[in-house]
Structures are given as C-alpha cells and as structure tokens.
Amino acid sequence: MARTLSMKDAINEAIDQEMARDKTVIMMGEDIVGGAGAAGEDDAWGGVLGVSKGLYHKHPKQMIDTPLSESAYVGAAIGAATCGLRPIAELMFIDFMGVCLDQIYNQAAKFRYMFGGKAETPVVIRAMCGAGFRAAAQHSQMLTPIFTHIPGLKVVCPSNAYDTKGLLIQAIRDNDPVIFLEHKNLYASECDVPEEPYAIPFGEANIAREGSDVTIVAYGLMVPNSLAAAETLKKEGIDCEVIDLRTLSPIDMDTVIESVEETGRLVCVDEANPRCSIATDVSATVARDAFKALKAPIEMVTAPHTPVPFSPSLEDLYIPSPDRIAEAVRKTMGA
Amino acid sequence: MSDQIVPILMPKWGLSMKVGTLAAWHVEEGTQINPGDEIMDVETDKIANVVEAADGGLLRRCVGTAGEIYPVQALLGVLAPASVSDAEIDAYVAAFEMPEVEEDGEEAPSHQTADLEIGRIRYLTREGEGTPVIFIHGFGGDSDNWLFNVDAVAADAPVYALDLPGHGGSVKSIDNPGLGTMVTAVIQLMDHLSIEKAHLVGHSMGGLVSGQTAIDHVGRVASLTLICSAGLGDEINPDYIGGFVSAASRKELKPVLKHLFADDSLVSRSMVDDLLKYKRLDGVQAFLDALKGNLFSQGKQGASIAAGVAASGVPTTVIWGAEDAVIPPSHASAISGAKVEVIADAGHMVMMENAARVNELIKAQL
Prior knowledge:
Structural class of chain B: alpha/beta
Order of helices and strands of chain A: EHEHEHEHHEHEHEEEEHEEHEHEHH
Helix content of chain B: 25-40%
Mean pLDDT of chain B: 91
CATH topology of the largest domain in chain A: Rossmann fold
Largest sheet of chain A: 7 strands, mixed
Strand order of the largest sheet of chain A: 3-2-4-5-7-6-12
CATH class of the largest domain in chain A: Alpha Beta
Distance between the termini of chain B: 35 Å
Number of strands of chain A: 14
Radius of gyration of chain B: 21 Å
Structural class of chain A: alpha/beta
CATH superfamily of the largest domain in chain A: Thiamin diphosphate (ThDP)-binding fold, Pyr/PP domains
CATH superfamily of the largest domain in chain B: Alpha/Beta hydrolase fold, catalytic domain
Strand content of chain A: 15-25%
Largest sheet of chain B: 8 strands, mixed
Oligomer: heterodimer
Number of domains of chain A: 2
Number of strands of chain B: 16
CATH architecture of the largest domain in chain B: 3-Layer(aba) Sandwich
C-alpha cells in the first residue's frame, strides 16, 4: 500500500527491508550506528543526517560503524562483496570519494573484467551529492560524470522518494558495484511510496512529464527544477516533456532519442560542471543519432566551471534554476 | 425558489482525485437536460471521461469554464426551471461555497484492510442500506477499476470492492494461486465483514470468481452481474494476457493495455505507470505467472461457469462491451436464462467506458 514517504525515509526503508530479506546485506559507514560504539540508544545519530536511524536496533549484526577512513572501509566493503556479502558503504559526501578512488575504479570496477567473469562485486557505495546546502566547495559537488565515465560502475541519481526506494533495492540486489548518489536537498521531498519492497530496473528513464514542443533531460534535483520550468512555460503556450534519466550508467538514450524525434528540440540540464558532463554526453549522442529531427540547436543548462561557492547568494546563482531552464527552452523555441 | 435549483458539480472519481479539468461542455445554456445525458468532459491526471447528468432540468448557467481546473465538488453548472429568475440564480452562484482543494495527509484512509486466513485483503467500502454489493476486479486489476461505479451504486446499497489476493494492496505471496484462492478470499472477506449474502459484480476474471462463488456457496449470493466475464467460453486474447504478464517496461505495457478499451486514448500515462508500479512489487511477477498458468494456459480459458451458474438459479445479468478485444462478446449468451446486454462503442473495460449504462444494469439487479 502506498503512503507518503520522504526520500530520506525511503532510503531507510529500502535498506531495512533488504537487510530483513537477506542477511548478507550489511552497511558500513561513519556514525551510522550511534557513534562512539553507543549500544543502539534511541537517540543514536544514524549517519550525518540520520538516514540509517533505527536500523541498528533492527539489524544489529548488519550495521557497522567504521573509523574515519573512507579508503579503509570502502576497500573493506569491496573486499567483503567479492567474498559473498552485499555491503552498502555510506560515504557522507560524494566529495570524499577522492580518497578511495583506487578501490573504486581500479579494483571494484575492474574485478569482473580482469578475473574473466569469475568475480562479482555486489557493493553499493552511497553518498550525498549536490549543492544548495551551504556546505561549501568540498561538500557540495555533483561528481556524477566522474563515475559515469568508468566502465564497470553503475551510477544512480534519483529525483524522488518512489524511485529512490526501488532503485536502491535494485542496487543492493545487483551483482555489480553501484554508485548511489542522493541529492541532499531532496531528502525531505515526499511522494507516494508502496510499503512493499519493489525494484526498478537500471537503464530505464522516467518520463516525468509528457509534452510535445521541447524535450528537457535531467536527473536528481534538476528534475523538480525542470518540472517547475515546464509549469511556467505552459502558461506561455510551450509544452515541455521532462525526462528523468534516473540512472546515468547504464543510460536510457532510447527514451531520449524517441522524445527528441517527436519534439525536435532538446535542453540538457545538469548540476555538474559543464565540461565532460552528463549534459554534454546526452547532447553529443542526440546530435549524432537524431540530428535530422532537430529543429533548433541543442541547449545546455549547467553549473559554471567553478567550485561551488560558499557565499549563499553565489551558490544560489550556481545551481541551474527553473528560470535559467525556462530561458534555455525559450531559446530553442526561437524566442 | 432556490430549492428548485440543482447544482452540477465536479465529480470525484476515485479517492485520490482532488481536482479535475473541465475539458468541454457538451450542452449550452438553455438546454433541457435529461438524467444520463452527456453534459461535459472531465479530465484528471488518471483518466478522461464524459460526465453524464445525474439530474434532469433546464441548464440555466454554465459556471465552469472549459479548460479550467476545479476542485472536486466545485459548482460547474446550475439547473433550474424557467420560473426561477436570473437574480435568484446569481444569488445561488454567489452564495455557493467553492470547496477548497483537499490537502494531502488530512484524508481518511482510502482503503481498509482485513487480515484473513488467506492473508491481508484490502478493500474499499461505502455505507448504505440493504443487501451489500461486492465488486470483484479482473486479472491484474484492483478495486480502483470500479472508479465510476462504486459511488453510483452506493446510492442504492452498501458497497464493497476488494483487491483479490496477489492484486492491488492485498497479500502477494500466494502458493499456487488459482480460482479456488480467489473464491476463498471472497468468502473469507464476507465472513469477516459479517455479510451473509451479497450481490456480486465481477469483471473478466472477477466474473469467473463471482460465478464460481455462486456455484460453490449458492446461499451467499443474491445475484450476479458478470461483465465481460471469463469462464463463459474457451477463447481469450493471448496477446493481452501474455503481454500483460511479460511486459517489463512502459513501452511494452502501453500497447497491451490498448486492448482494454474501444477508445484506446483512454490509456493514460498514469494508468500505465500505476500498473508498472504494481507489477514491480516483490512477488507479483511470480504470482501473475502462476495464475496465468492455472487459469489461462495455452492461451485458452481453463474454467467454465456457464452451466453451473444457470443451474444455481441465482439471478444473473451478463454485460459485454461490443468492442471487447480481450474476451469475445459472443460469450455473452453462454448462460441460459440470464439477462444479456451488449453495449456498443465499449471494450473490455465497459464499466469505465459506459459507466452510466453499466450502473443502471447493476442497480436493476438489486
């Protein structure tokens, strides 16, 4: 039965249900249990924003607090995955993946390939991503393109609570390493979420809104921003289709191409920095595969090529806003 | 006087509906309207349908504007005899309290659940007087299939619409599900609700379940209304059943669902999404595979209720959509002694495509 749940609670429920179903599902991370070895007090933190709160009570043998060493416990999670467990490693922020990149892209991403298909690495590495949290340049990045670039990694970045639960369950059941990125400014966003477990397959974009004039492709926080732009544009008589990629690797280009063949116009929205991004990737693929369908040049709306500013007013300007998205759409319409 | 003024309101189709778009008026001010006349088109995010007049009268005022969005129960039009003055109608419209859009979280729960021996069964209910009516949906459906029927029939009797095992919000893990599972669920729910006897209204596989319930528990069934029912012949469209079970994405599911309607534009994105969400719940795929194998193996129907229902003596009405592409309308005459009506311009989901006529036939049976 469906009821309303926040994205944060959907993450907790997905992990809870998978831990109950499968005792090889474990979770490792900093302060995810209670910090300082607290024996499961009710006020235990449950991670930096309380995502895993309550899970230690329900699954004490499957929840592990780690030292403040991402390189150590991400490596341990990857090793445990190759030996039969299904670990979820929680990094507080995607920005911290830098210190454990060797484990992620040289080890986890390569095992299946280098061992001739004999090794599986069913690990999920979860982290918060994105700007708007007043957390400055080292805690606010949208590093999705870095992981999407690496063959052997699956990359997920959901935009709502329903997708988050289904995609996280799929990530836990998946036999390959999955980088699961949660936009911190979406944690409180709510929608109907079934109580039962369910899995959403990777590589299937969601058409968040149907429209006939312009295709907007987005993921994560850029989906609600694009939907807000579409509402504004509707009043001007411009009918936008909004495609939520949901997973960046694998990516569902078929849905994007089919949509552009109908609308003839494309706006790619990406919170990542503009070079070598999801926006450039989608734009280049559409330009190659659907060039004849295009009625106007492709537009991209991205963050600027700068670090995320700490100044709140500058940070607000940094994130692609509904206004900027709407302006790009108008440009494709020749306005 | 104002007691001669009858409002035309935005209908509420299903519990999740909060607003609707008045897509078009089919009648103009000054038209004499009879109950059942098609007066306007309304669209929600779930479905679009034509609204039929609940009351007759002279349409004095179109308050709602085509293309605008209104909350449920908003005043869209005014019926009144010519003797009522324009001033009185102005006063009525001015005094009408436009409802607020319901906020999330303040609603009563849309469905109830009953923990039965067979497992949890979800159902929705409307109170009323008399012998209850129980609506039983078809293969892959749920109680929301009766969106346009529940409230209309509830005017005459208490109404229940359940989600069969494996469907909607009911228990999903069922070993070897078959016709017996479904009949057991109906009887256990009736026992749980202390319903001694009920009118059963079944659609498609739900018709088969209703008929089998009447055969197995003849004293518990007051009447049968079988809508595009299974169990009345061999044929069933294997592209629909097989396609529904195997479809794993929106692209695969949408063309399959078009078999359900004479007007396939009724297959909305939201309808496809809701069914995909159901199919992705843990246990549902295995359940549907097993149920299909037990009821519709080799692309044929395995169970027949025609002779049993005729022999049971339970009053029976058979309703079919003339354009049904899932089960052929020729099956409608299978039960000797049953009242039969084949409705034009409607497909397998005839209770949605021509709700007004189906509701009349259901009520005539009570």
